[in-house]
Amino acid sequence: MKQKTLLSIILFNLLAFTAFAQTNLKVGYADVEYILSEMPETVKAQAELDDVMQKLTKTRDSIVEDYNAKLEDYKKNANTFVENVKKEKETDLMRIQNGIQDFDTDIQKAVNYKKGLLLKPIYARIGELIAVVAKAQNFTHIINSQIDGTSVLLYAEKTTDISDLVIAEAKK
Questions:
Q1: Which residues make beta-bridge pairs with 141?
Q2: Contact, 169 vs 133, CB < 8 A?
Q3: Residue 6 pLDDT
Q4: Is 16 a residue whose pLDDT tops 70?
Q5: What are 129-135's contacts with CB under 8 Å, separation 24+?
Q6: Which of 93, 96, 162, 163 is deepest in the core (most CB within 10 A)?
C-alpha cells in the first residue's frame, strides 16, 4: 500500500512539474571537453603542463641512470663483496628502486595537481561563456553532453548543441 501511495505522489508531482515546465523550458547541451580542446587558453596550459612533465621526467631519468649504474656495478662485483657490504649494496639498490616507484607516484600526483590548477580558470571561463550563449539563445538549461568521454544524452537535436557557439564566443 505504501508503494502505491508513494508511486501516486511521485507520478502526480511529475505530471504537475511537466505541465508547468512546458511553458518556458528550453534545454540545450554542450560538450565541455570539446569546447576545452578548442579554447586558446588550453594550448598555453598544455605547454606549461608539458614543461613540468619534461622537468620531472628528466629528474626521474637521472635517478634511473644512477640506479642502473649501481646495479651494473653490483652485478659485476657481487662475488668480490664481503657479505655485509653485499647486503648493504642490495639494501641501497632496493631503496633506490622503491624511491623510483615513489617518485613515479609523486610525478603523477604533481601533474594531476598542476593540471587541475591550470584547467580550473579555463573551466570557469567555459561556464561563463555557456551562460552568455544560453541567455542569448533563450535556453533555460544546458546539459553537458558527456561525462568522462561517455555520452549521457540519449537523444538531442543537433540544433540544441551550443558547443560551437560557445567556442565562437570564446574567440571574440
A1: 27
A2: yes
A3: 41
A4: no
A5: 129/35, 129/166, 129/169, 129/170, 130/30, 130/162, 130/166, 132/169, 133/162, 133/165, 133/166, 133/169, 134/28, 134/162
A6: 162
Among the listed residues 44, 34, 25, 42, the one whose alpha carbon sits nearest the alpha carbon of residue 166: 34
| Alpha-carbon gap, residue 25 to 95, rounded angstroms | 62
Whether 144 shows a pLDDT value over 60: the answer reads yes
15, 36, 22, 27: which is closest to 155 by C-alpha?
Answer: 27
What are the two backbone dihedrals, phi and then psi, of residue 24, each rounded to the nearest 5 degrees? -125, 10
For residue 75, the one-letter residue type is K
**How many Cα neighbours within 13 Å face the side chain of 168?**
5
Helices (H) and strands (E) in the chain, counts: 5, 4
Query: What's the CA gap between 136 and 3, in Å, rounded?
Result: 44
**DSSP one-letter string for 6-41:** HHHHHHHHHHHHHHHHTTT--EEEE-HHHHHHH-HH
Q: Coil, strand or helix: which one is 72? A: helix
Give the contacts of 57 (CB within 8 A, at least 6 positions apart). Answer: 107
